[in-house]
Design brief:
Helix content is 77%, strand content 0%. By secondary structure, the protein is mainly alpha-helical.
């Protein structure tokens, strides 16, 4: 009994069975059964393929056909094969994405967009999101998109940035999107990350922080940005872009003296006249910015006037054609016209006499304009325009003189004003106020309103512009808007009288 339970005995018996079975095979007649064996094997293989839902072999063949169709740009076949693949149960993200690409190539944009949106928003496919961004949004301005498109654009960008955190291009697009939507606080962290690659974006983050009222963060970001850019500037002291960047950050931090010092040291290092000219213009802008800060303090002592005039004299030496500098020089010449201090009067005269003929005529003409001497203003500004035909400030002031002079040529004034505005990428509110006044006098009230509304951004112009806007709206029979502007004019006038 024990031997029947012994595994060794079972192994011996099994071996004997196999040996005897093999010996019993009629080996001399085996050849005749080979075709039957082959047929049986083939039937087994076909049965396996037929009942295995396609199997890996069939899927491989189909995938190969799809790839070949795409490579030879036979997108019609590719679309049919991809749909067949989906019917057989393959609805993977990759298959749907390739189908959408094929549909796009076949000009089936609606189907492609619908499928890509499904992939992006239901399956969180960043590839589909990037395709939608590239096809539907790149190259378009914020104003070209309606609210639905703006929201979709933001969701797609957010998905890509989340899935691809190191994609600097998409992160920059997302930061721009947030800024366009006035979501400054949300844009700041993205700009901080991008600043590691482009340090000047740190200054943009600092500016947005100041705009949302976080002065502490603004100062910290500006300081970090200055350190980064200064290190680069130390390595490339003759790089004009880095010199301008350092000065720009210093101006943002109200370090005007440091900015002027940076530009002053950098100008002699520049290797080309174009680079030196760019830094000299920046020097003029930096001094003008400092003068504006000083002017806000409203210190009218002779010492302070002398200081400002000396600064403007330096600005004119570096940037004699800078519109901001020219405007400030004109303002200061007029402000000090009745100043009895000999030093101030001497420097005032030197500013006028020491400049080029065109600038001297501009200063005299602007002074006459502000003193309501329109005939003299037109005379000097016309001469200035001949000497400096590309100066937008001169063109604008000459337009003002022609407008305010009795019997002035309004058509010519409008032409000059248009030229001044079109010559600048970001025209001053003063220029729009000039053109608005001209159009008002020409009784083109509907055309005047947009320009006058743009001029409202300048605090010094606001009261007078509100008054003219009230008259424009009266003329076009809009009493409600006229009343609003009249109230604004009265409020600002009263506020000015109280000061």
């Amino acid at each position: 009994m024990f031997r029947y339970l012994n595994p060794l005995a079972w192994t011996k018996w099994f071996g004997q069975f196999i040996f005897c079975w093999i010996r019993s095979i009629p080996w001399k007649r085996v050849g005749a059964g080979v075709p039957a064996l082959i047929l049986t094997a083939a039937l087994i293989l076909l049965a396996f393929l037929a009942y295995s839902d396609g199997g890996s072999w069939r899927r491989g063949v189909l995938a190969s056909q799809i790839q070949n169709a795409i490579e030879i740009e036979d997108f019609e076949s590719a679309e049919l094969l991809l749909k067949r693949q989906m019917k057989e149960g393959d609805s993977s993200t990759d298959t749907l994405f390739r189908l959408a690409l094929a549909q796009d190539q076949l000009d089936e944009q609606d189907q492609a967009n619908q499928l890509m949106r499904e992939l992006a928003f239901r399956r969180n496919s960043e590839r589909a999101a990037m395709w939608l961004i590239q096809q539907n949004y790149l190259g378009k301005g914020w104003g070209d998109l309606d609210s639905t498109q703006q929201n979709e654009f933001g969701e797609l960008l957010e998905l890509v940035v989340e899935k691809q955190p190191k994609n600097a291009g998409m992160r920059q697009l997302y930061a721009n999107y947030l800024i366009a939507g006035h979501r400054y606080a949300a844009a700041i962290p993205h700009l901080q990350q991008l600043a590691e690659l482009n340090p000047m974006l740190g200054l943009q983050a600092a500016a947005l922080s100041r705009q949302v009222g976080d002065d502490t963060q603004s100062e910290r970001l500006a300081s970090v940005t200055l350190d980064r850019v200064s290190k680069l500037f130390t390595e490339e002291p003759a790089n004009p872009k880095l010199a301008l960047a350092v000065a720009q950050i210093q101006l943002f931090s109200q370090e005007h003296a440091d900015a002027i010092r940076t530009l002053s040291k950098s100008i002699p290092r520049m290797k080309t006249p174009e680079h030196r000219a760019a830094l000299q213009q920046a020097m003029g802008d930096a001094i003008a910015a400092w003068v504006n800060v000083i002017e806000k303090e409203k210190n009218e002592t002779p010492v302070e006037r002398l200081r400002v005039l000396k600064m403007l004299q330096v600005a004119l030496e570096h940037a004699p054609n800078n519109p901001r500098v020219l405007t400030l020089v004109s303002d200061q010449v007029l402000k000090t016209a009745e100043n009895d201090d000999e030093s101030v009067q001497a420097l005032r005269s030197a500013l006028v006499e020491g400049t080029s003929p065109g600038i001297a005529h501009f200063i005299r003409g602007t002074s006459a304009l502000m003193a309501d001497d329109m005939e003299k203003a037109e005379q000097h500004l016309s001469l200035a325009a001949k000497h400096l035909p590309n100066s937008t400030a001169i063109l604008n002031n000459l337009a003002v003189a022609l407008t305010q002079r009795e019997g002035g040529d309004l058509e010519k004034a409008l032409q000059l004003s248009n030229q001044a505005i079109e010559s600048q990428a970001n025209a001053s509110p003063y220029f729009y106020e000039t053109r608005g006044q001209i159009l008002f006098r020409m009784e083109k009230y509907l055309d005047a309103i947009p320009d006058l509304e743009k001029a409202l951004s300048e605090e010094k112009l606001a009261a007078g512009v509100h008054e003219v806007l009230a008259k424009c709206y009266e003329k076009i029979d809009d009493p409600k808007m006229a009343a609003e502007h009249r109230k604004a004019f009265e409020r600002l006038s009263k506020k000015s009288d109280e000061k």
